[in-house]
Amino acid sequence: METKIIDGKKIANEIKKELKEKVIKLKEKNIIPTLAVVLVGKDEASKVYVSNKKKACDYIGIRSLSYELPEDTTEEQLLDLMNELNEREDVHGILVQLPLPNGINEEKVIQAIDPKKDVDGFHPQSVGALSIGHKGFVSCTPSGIIELLKRSNITIEGKECVVVGRSNIVGKPMALLLLRENGTITVCHSRTKDLKEVTKRADILVAAIGKPKFITKEYIKEGAVIIDVGIHRQENKKLCGDVDFDDCIDKVSGITPVPGGVGPMTIAMLMNNCVESAESLA
Ligand code: GUN
Questions:
Q1: Do the domain assignments include residue 12?
Q2: Interval between CA 19 and ligand 1 midpoint (Å)
Q3: Which residue ranges in the chain fall short of pLDDT 50?
Q4: Which atom, in ligand 1's list, is nearest to the CA of 270?
Q5: Which residues form a coiled coil (predicted)?
Q6: Count: domains in the chain
Q7: Rounded to the nearest 10 degrees, how much is the dihedral formed by the CA atoms of 166, 170, 174, 176?
Q8: CA–CA separation, 43 vs 32, rounded Å?
């Protein structure tokens, strides 16, 4: 069977090029799309993520405002900053990199973001809007996966879709988005009995488990499309996903690599949300 590696990096680059054009048009109207990027503390992984997001902003022409705050920032200070950024008419998106240091209530901070600027799609209002099919920002990893499937000409309608993982950021919104596209959805998690029996039914399998190389060929159906959300640093320093890529590759009709699959799409969708926010607030 011919195997198709789904090139997330290439598709993300196409989206970023399209966004660049949109930003040029906005700038002709004197609107500069602006994203406030808030990083608290010194989590090394978060620093890398934030730096990649700012690089994407630079490429597209989105202005990024950097707020790098010390580990001992208080919840009150952060809430004050959210209020300030909500008020600013020149700020179109607010991104608070998670996790926040101990002692700061993440939910409270997320809820302080104006849903109109919630480009991460984490605010309860955004999540609620998604669940009833109203307009609102959608979490970037699952929306990136839908875009990846569409641009790879993979039909979702009528397909058996299995999502492994039920996080608020990936698993749950992923299930809702696949449902919106008329897939038949099953969500699995750590308490699922006979996981293999369920994942083997999937035409489209989304792995967001958080365990390196967990999904092997025994978990998949011949010809399935496999989307790997995981990213892990192995002992040999190489990155891998939740899927054992080498073990599965001969059995699938499509699979995302790690790196270069879902990750770049998450950033592309964040950029898309920023541009959309600037367009709608304009
Ligand atoms: N931490 C891990 N993933 C994300 C993300 O997509 N957005 C934010 N803000 N923080 C994260």
A1: no
A2: 21
A3: 1
A4: 6
A5: none
A6: 2
A7: 70
A8: 30
97 is known as an active-site residue: yes
Per-residue pLDDT tens for 84-135?
A: 999 999 999 999 999 999 999 999 999 999 999 999 999 999 999 999 999 9
In this structure, the residue with its CA closest to atom 2 of ligand 1 is: 98
d(CA 239, CA 80): 38
Our answer on whether the CB atom of 95 is closer than 6 Å to any ligand 1 atom is yes
Cβ(170) to ligand 1 under 6 A?
no
Phi and psi of 156, rounded to 5°? -100, -35
Rounded to the nearest angstrom, the distance between the alpha carbon of 139 and the centre of ligand 1 is: 9
Range of the domain at 174: 140-263
79 and 168 co-located in one domain: no
Q: What's the pTM value of the predicted model, to 2 decimals?
A: 0.97
Q: Catalytic annotation on 120?
A: yes
Q: Classify burial at 165, counting beta carbons within 10 Å of its beta carbon; exposed 0-12, middle 13-18, buried 19 or more.
A: buried
Residue nearest ligand 1's atom 7 by CA = 97
